[in-house]
Amino acid sequence: MSIKKILRITALVTLVAPCKIWAQQNQFSGWGAIFHTQKFSDKWGISFDAQFRSANHFDYLRNILVRPSLNYYFDGNKMVALGYAYVTTNGRTNTGASTFRPESRIWEQLIINQKLGKGATLQHRFRLEQRFLGNTADNANDSYFAQRFRYFARAVIPFNGNAVFKQGPFVGLQDEIFFNVQNKDKVNQHFFDQNRAYLAFGYRLSPAFDIESGYMNQYTKQANSYTINHIIQLALYTRF
């Protein structure tokens, strides 16, 4: 897949998704994240990411996500992983009272990395999640289990055009689509869950460290409506 084609696809998803829901709810929030990968050998390693997500208009901290995994590498460009995630969701009722729901996830994934030429790379990620959502603070009987499938594609395109990208500015383009594959009636009553299109500008300080910031368009299907969340994200990537 060419870099021009990736740019066209990402732009199309970013522009078309919101057009469907201008009459629906719009939100504005900020996300911060750190992603770390640690290899112990050619075959084994671990990953860890932590994310912090605000509520609409940055009113309060809505989500904290902690997600470690054990990774196995093979065929030079592929990796499978088994991981766990803990997610907290804070909310507000119509009366302003605080709500809280914890969520635990077990997840499995396959990652395939591709080289696109001139230092650019494309990553495909296929993830299946088993979601155990706990009771909310005001309801002791609303816990449930659901499964969700996610497909993620991310391209990193350096400005310098070197065959091996070790340092310098880059563009990050990614898109992720989510599908509810079990107990969708417990989540939002739809097979399609959400789409996240993202455009970022970053700088690779060394082969082990990237920093980037960008705009994410999160398009979410709910039971009887659509929501689009305009997100400013700051992310750090470390690799050892």
UniProtKB/TrEMBL annotation:
<dbReference type="InterPro" id="IPR019619">
    <property type="entry name" value="DUF2490"/>
</dbReference>
<dbReference type="Pfam" id="PF10677">
    <property type="entry name" value="DUF2490"/>
</dbReference>
<protein>
    <submittedName>
        <fullName>DUF2490 domain-containing protein</fullName>
    </submittedName>
</protein>
